[in-house]
């Protein structure tokens, strides 16, 4: 399986940062904090998106404070990709735990496949997004959201079974929801500009 390194993930964000014209950098930095503004808007428009998760996730990346809306979406996708990659490692570790219930091990095997596919899908979504093919990017990001729900739901098929991946599934779902919201904001801006 092809593994994406954290270097290539952060390189994408760094390169995107460099594409912002230097004249606009100070104006962006002085303007209302784009993270707060975006997360408030997205949380207000979504039944499931947590403002706190949105703000905390994006604020953890320093370049997010001086980027534009498209850059913020790419950062959210990079965070989602990093989350999915880390979760895949967690699933592999859990799968080696022979003390787990056999049903849980079957669920982990399903989640392993779902997260393996999610990593590839997110990498493709980033490429589509950077090409301003927001529709395709949204479709792929939505697919990843469904994967988290499927992974979590598998454990619930057996009464009393507790998913060891609840936090990971929740966080990836939230990051993907941030991406979809920002993409919709960009689509709206694009359609009103034409």
UniProtKB/TrEMBL annotation:
GO molecular function, one term: enzyme inhibitor activity
Keywords from the named record: Disulfide bond, Signal
One Pfam family matching this protein: PMEI
Signal peptide from the UniProt entry: 1-26
InterPro entries (alphabetical): Invertase/methylesterase_inhib, Pectinesterase_inhib_dom, Pla_a_1-like
Key word Oxidoreductase present: no
Occurrences of domain Pectinesterase inhibitor (ranges): 30-182
Gene Ontology annotations for the cellular component aspect, listed alphabetically: extracellular region
Family in the record: Belongs to the PMEI family.
Name this polypeptide is given: Pectinesterase inhibitor domain-containing protein
């Amino acid at each position: 399986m092809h593994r994406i390194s954290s270097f290539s993930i952060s390189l994408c964000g760094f390169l995107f940062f460099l594409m912002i014209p230097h004249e606009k950098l100070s104006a962006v930095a002085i303007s209302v904090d784009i993270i707060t503004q975006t997360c408030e808007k997205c949380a207000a428009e979504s039944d499931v998106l947590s403002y706190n998760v949105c703000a905390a996730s994006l604020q953890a990346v320093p370049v997010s404070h001086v980027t534009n809306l498209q850059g913020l979406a790419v950062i959210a996708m990079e965070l989602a990709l990093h989350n999915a990659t880390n979760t895949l490692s967690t699933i592999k570790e859990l799968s080696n735990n022979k003390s787990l219930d056999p049903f849980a091990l079957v669920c982990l095997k399903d989640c392993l496949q779902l997260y393996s596919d999610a990593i590839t899908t997110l990498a493709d979504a980033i490429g589509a997004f950077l090409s301003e093919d927001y529709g395709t990017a949204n479709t792929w990001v939505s697919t990843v959201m469904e994967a988290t729900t499927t992974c979590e739901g598998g454990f619930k098929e057996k009464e009393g079974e507790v998913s060891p991946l609840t936090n990971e599934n929740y966080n990836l779902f939230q990051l993907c929801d941030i991406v979809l919201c920002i993409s919709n904001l960009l689509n709206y801006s694009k359609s009103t500009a034409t």
